[in-house]
Amino acid sequence: PYNILSKYAVMDAIATFRAYYAMVKQVHTIDKNFPNDKMPEWTLWRWYTDIMMPVYPDFIEMEYRGFWVDRDEQHKGQKFLLDKRKELEKNMAKAWNVPETFEFGSSTELGKLFEKLGWPCVERGKAGYYNTSESCLVEWKRLGKPCIDDLSLYRTIGTFLHTFMATSDDDEAGWNKFIKKDKDGDYKIHCNFNVNGTTSFRNIGSEPNTQQIPVHN
Question: Which pTM was predicted?
Answer without folding.
Answer: 0.73
